[in-house]
Specification:
Blueprint lengths: L2 H12 L5 H13 L1 H19 L9 H11 L8 H29 L5 H13 L7 H14 L1
This protein binds zinc ion (ZN).
């Protein structure tokens, strides 16, 4: 048995929910695995403490006092977190929409109906005058190599 399986069986073992064979397998693992043995012992101790703890009874009239308080709690304001989330999402969509619309406007005004053609012609025009040893020149050389293939 692996330690992860033993961990899953420990709580059930303390509650007396394991079959005899499962209990034997767990016991065999606990004998040979020091770490799981210590953990099982700690589990046993906690189980024992919880079992013998004094039951705590609620103070008198707790339920009626809680219910009385609930009536005085303010109802949800108009600008609740739910509305704030909705407004935030709406703002993000508007920003994306404006970005896409303005991007289309720019590419249309430049006569770039096909993005790939536009990108290729833009990159050639921009980097044509760069010296070959510069970063732009290296990029241009790479473009020319890939265009030749
Ligand atoms: Zn183990």
């Amino acid at each position: 048995m692996k330690c992860t399986k033993a961990h899953k069986l420990m709580s059930a073992s303390l509650d007396g929910e394991l079959s005899a064979s499962e209990q034997e397998l767990l016991a065999a693992h606990l004998k040979q695995c020091v770490a799981c043995g210590k953990e099982y012992h700690a589990f046993q101790e906690m189980h024992r403490l919880l079992h013998h703890a004094q039951p705590f009874s609620a103070p008198p009239y707790l339920a009626s006092r809680v219910m009385a308080r609930l009536d005085t709690v303010e109802t949800r304001p108009f600008f609740s977190p739910l509305w704030a989330n909705f407004a935030e999402a709406l703002m993000i969509f508007m920003v994306i929409g404006i970005g896409v619309a303005s991007g289309n406007l720019i590419s249309n005004s430049m006569g770039l109906h096909n993005f790939d053609d536009g990108l290729a012609s833009m990159s050639l025009e921009i980097f044509d005058a760069t010296p070959p040893e510069s970063l732009g020149g290296a990029y241009l050389a790479m473009l020319e190599v890939s265009n030749e293939k």
